[in-house]
Design brief:
Blueprint: E1 12-14, H1 19-25, H2 39-49, E2 55-61, E3 64-75, E4 78-85, H3 105-118, E5 121-129, H4 131-143, E6 147-160, H5 166-171, H6 175-190, E7 194-199, H7 205-217, H8 229-239, E8 243-250, E9 253-263, E10 266-274, H9 283-295, E11 303-305, H10 314-317, E12 320-330, H11 335-355
Parallel strand pairs: 4-5, 10-11
Antiparallel strand pairs: 1-2, 2-3, 3-4, 5-12, 6-11, 6-12, 7-8, 8-9, 9-10
Helix pairs in contact: 2-8, 3-4, 6-9, 7-8
Length: 356
């Protein structure tokens, strides 16, 4: 991707608390941004997921806003600073707000890259990028002297939902899934003690957190590395009416739970779990059926996606896949950056050359 020859636009630095004002100064209206660019999303991540000596900050340049997390690192005798987008494995999508609409996006990305090099940042890392932000960031960073390596990171499974009703959707699902879902729904919901609830209001937050965490503790899922993150997301999301927590109860016991993120016509099945003792009753399948059935009655809904990852079950529910990318970048003017580039990029380049 060619980089236009413009004078480098200036970069400004800000604290995360001023993010909404930074957006407006960049010509972005916070209410128009997707969920993964909201202040609540970034603030919850910063409040619960930053590690020792790590801090959150925001850079802005010519219509692009770049939330970052930065920490000191050591590599043998060398010390430096590592920076990455304000994201992690919870982030289903990351794109510096404004990067797709800024007229001078690549020169702005180059200015951001130059600014970070001048600050002595040794390494950069970005998660969960769509193709256009990936290309713009990679081009700008290369232009400003970084050693850049984009890479495929994960698949995001989705379905477009405009004019799609549940009956049409359900007919196109695999036969085994349809048979299991209908049979188990009849047994547990129609004839049994099962009931499905959706927590969607601010006043439901504590009940939603309790139900979700109760199920998660009895599921196959590993312990959360950041135990405050999901309760924080649920509380903030329900207050904004942009998160729903779906639960399947048997009598008074929650046995399956899902956290959905919904904003501007896009829904993400963000997190799910079920009680292992109820796995043979397909409680996860029953709950997913009910949540999708309800979602498809909303005529403003444009898309449902399954968040991060290529788990086999996801394509049974949502048939389309798009690639999300990561970027690793190294500052050759830093001994840490140069050493990590030699460790990570050069062996892969040599391996690729040998395969030719």
């Amino acid at each position: 991707m060619a980089v236009p020859d413009h004078t480098s636009p200036p970069v400004t630095e800000h604290g995360l608390s001023s993010l909404s004002d930074v957006y407006r100064k960049a010509g972005l209206e916070p209410a128009d941004l997707d969920f993964y660019s909201t202040f609540d999303w970034f603030e919850n991540l910063a409040a619960n997921c930053l590690q020792d000596e790590e801090k959150a900050e925001v850079l802005a340049c010519d219509g692009i806003v770049l939330p970052l997390r930065t920490r000191p690192i050591r590599l043998g005798p060398f010390s430096g600073i590592a920076s990455r987008g304000l994201s992690n494995f919870y982030s289903c999508r990351f794109a510096p707000p404004g990067i797709g609409s800024a007229a001078g996006a690549i020169p702005a990305a180059a200015s951001l890259g130059k600014h970070l090099r001048n600050r002595g940042i040794a390494t950069l890392w970005f998660d969960a990028l769509d193709e256009t932000p990936k290309d713009i960031l990679a081009a700008g960073l290369k232009h400003s002297g970084w050693l850049v390596e984009p890479f495929p990171q994960f698949g995001n499974w989705y379905i477009t939902t405009e004019n799609l009703d549940f009956e049409t959707y359900w007919r196109s699902r695999p036969g085994a899934l349809r048979n299991t879902g209908l049979r188990r729904h009849r047994a547990l919901i129609e004839r049994g003690d099962g009931r499905i609830l959706c927590f969607a209001d601010r006043d439901d937050a504590e009940a939603a957190v309790d139900a979700y965490e109760s199920v998660y503790a009895r599921s196959w899922q590993p312990n959360e590395p950041f135990p405050g993150y999901m309760p924080g997301l649920i509380r903030r999301g329900l207050a904004a009416q942009e998160v729903q927590v779906w639960c399947l109860f048997v009598k008074e016991i929650p046995v399956a739970a899902q956290v959905w993120v919904r904003r501007h016509g896009h829904a993400t099945i963000f997190k799910l779990a079920y009680d292992q003792d109820w796995g043979k009753q397909s409680v996860g399948t029953i709950l997913t059926m009910a949540a999708i059935r309800t979602a498809l009655t909303d005529k403003s809904l444009k898309e449902i996606d399954f968040g991060w990852g290529d788990d086999a079950y996801k394509q049974e529910w949502l048939p389309n896949r798009r690639q999300r990318y990561g970027i690793s970048a190294y500052n050759p003017g830093s001994m840490v950056g140069l050493s990590m580039a030699a460790r990570n990029i050069i062996p892969r380049k040599l391996k690729a050359l040998r395969r030719r």
